[in-house]
Amino acid sequence: MERVAFLAPQGNSTFGFVERDGGYRPHVDLAIPAVTRTIRHQGCLIFVCRPDPAVHFFELESGKRWSISLPAKSRPFDLVVWRNWLFVAAGGRTLLATDTWKADASWVTLSCEDAAPPRGNATWLTLPCEKDIDALAIQEDRLLALDNIVMPKWLLIFELTDAGALGPSRIKLPDHGTYETIEGAAYWNGRFAVLSRTVGMMGVSKCVWVLDGTSYGEVGHAYSFEASFDPRYDEGFLPLICAEDIAVCRDILVLAGGRYGLVATSLAMEAHVTAISGHGNYQGLLANDFRQFWPAVARHQPIVCVRACDDPAGFIVTSIEGRRLRRERSWEEALVRKQVRAESYFLDYDEMKQHLERMPPGRAEGTKWRDKTRRAELRRDAGKASGWVEARALDRSATGKK
Question: Its domain of life (predicted)?
Answer without folding.
Answer: Bacteria
